[in-house]
Amino acid sequence: MTDREDKLMRAARGLATGISPARDLWPGIEQAISAPRKSRWSPMLAQAAAAVLLVGASSLVTYVAVKYDAGDTPAQVMTAAAPQGLIFDRAAFGGEDTLAAVYGRAGGNIGSMLDRELASLSPEAREDVERNLAVIRRAIEEIATALEKEPDNVFLQELLVEAYSNELALMNRIGSMAQRVMARRDI
Amino acid sequence: MRHGMKSTMAVVCVATLASTAASAEQQVDRTIDAEADSYIEIYNTSGEIEVIGWSKNQVSVKGTLDDDVEELVLERDGKDILIRVKVPHRHHGNVDANLVISVPEKSSIEVSAVSADITVSGILGKQALETVSGDVETTTAGNDVDAGSVSGDVDVTGNGKPADFEAATVSGDLTLTNLAGRVDAESVSGDVEIIGGVFDDVYLESVNGDLEFHGELADGGDLSMESVNGTIDIVFARDPSARFDIETFNGSIRNCFGPKPERTSRYSPGLELSFTVGDGDSHVSVETLNGSVNICNQ
Is A177 close to B150, i.e. CB distance below 8 A? Predict the structure, then answer.
């Protein structure tokens, strides 16, 4: 042991073994715990992330649609489309289906565009669109329920992919339809 | 009592003023020269749009505009003609324009509306017709038609000449009569019906609506029908020469051509049926989750 190490050891033995926090420390800790957490996401960052998610989900949906037409089963296509490290197993078409997450993200972003376009329609037209989106979503639930019983059923897998595609297509179509007429008011 | 009478009179006055304002409209009657095979774009948010093909090389726009209409745009740039009912920005409520538009019969047209009905007749060129909450009704003489509505019905009547037809609704019904060639028709909760015609390629899809095909498949043709909850009916105008692949998860299959469907699994109600009639030149594919399937000939 060197002189320096010896000195340090003696100093350490002289330290108190129990440390009591100062009496005024707890209110600060309590405040830090109960205060709402500040989000790491600024609005701009969140928008950028949403855009990345939309592009990713849309690309995946397009990829699935193209490959799906080429004759692969939806399960094969989804597995092939998955990024490395993200595993699509058979349960992907069950109640916890991964498709829901993928389409959900794409649909969420299209949905905000749709909401803006719906606001420009008559209440009747708006109600009609919403009622029919509910019809598609009920159909998706029915197919997903059937798939829980038979996760390997390719026919049901196809129906589920088509139902999700229908939902996105409808949202996209309504948005673009209203926009096409409204957007040219400046002519 | 006097107070009640005053209120009533006030309501009557307000109603009269409102009705006068609502009925205020301006007449329009404008004509410009056009090429025989023009491309005509028409935009009208609300009201009615009737497009008629005629033999003159002119475009005529007649009708009435609500007083709130800012301007009726009628512009020509070579073969391109734009007709647009311009309404004020941020206007609340419908601003109607009821237009009868005559165009050279060989023109192609594109009509877009929000809450307006679209009626087309006598057009020989291509048609793209789209409205949100109105009906679409058109006749075609063997050229492509793309028609869609959200809550309105879509009726397309042809003359039996082949072309590409695309039609879609959300809740409205689709009726396609005497067409031929290729058809792609989809609806969410509306019924889709094909009446008559000889087809190379037909794709019909619905979520809750019923699908009906009453027609013929050309040699090598393809008929594909898919629904989640709708009934699927196929009636061939003559005996087909086709391979059939039919599958349901929960619906029944009735087949006039002989073979009976088989269960897809011991544990689920699903049925499938594959068979061939004649040489099997064409292909018929039917898929449904809960709907029943009926296949027969006349």
Answer: yes
Residue from the list A136, A142, A150 with its beta carbon closest to the beta carbon of B289: A142
Helix (H) / strand (E) containing B136: strand B136-139
| Distance to chain B for A115, nearest Cα, Å | 15
In the numeric block, the tokens 């393809």 are attached to B222
Tell me, what's the ipTM? Answer: 0.73
Query: B254 forms bridges with which residues in the sheet?
Result: B294
A contact test, residue of B129, B225, B228, B287 with most A CBs within 10 A: B228
Which residue shows structure tokens 């948010």?
B45
Residues of A with CB under 8 A from a CB of B: 120-122, 124-125, 128-129, 131-132, 135-136, 139, 142-143, 146, 149-150, 153, 155-156, 158-159, 162-163, 166, 170, 173-174, 177-178, 180-182, 184-185, 187
What b/e string do you get for B268-285 counting C-beta neighbours within 10 Å, with b at 16 or more?
eebbbbebebeeebbbbe
CA distance A107 to A65: 16
Tokens of A143: 């197919």
pLDDT in tens, chain A (187 residues): 566 566 656 655 655 554 444 555 555 545 544 444 433 333 343 344 334 434 444 444 444 444 444 444 444 444 444 443 333 333 344 444 556 666 666 666 666 667 777 777 778 888 888 888 889 999 999 999 888 888 888 888 888 888 888 888 888 777 666 566 555 443 3
B100 contact A CB<8A: no
Tell me the pTM: 0.73
Closest CA to B209 of B156, B247, B154, B160: B154
Which residue of A132, A173, A187 is in closest CB contact with B73?
Answer: A187
What CATH code is assigned to A40-79+94-183?
Answer: 1.20.1200
Instruction: Domain ranges for chain B, please list them.
Output: 25-134, 138-298
Find out whether B123 and B51 touch, Cβ atoms under 8 Å. Answer: yes
Report how far residue A42's alpha carbon sits from residue B199's, in angstroms, rounded to the nearest whole number.
56
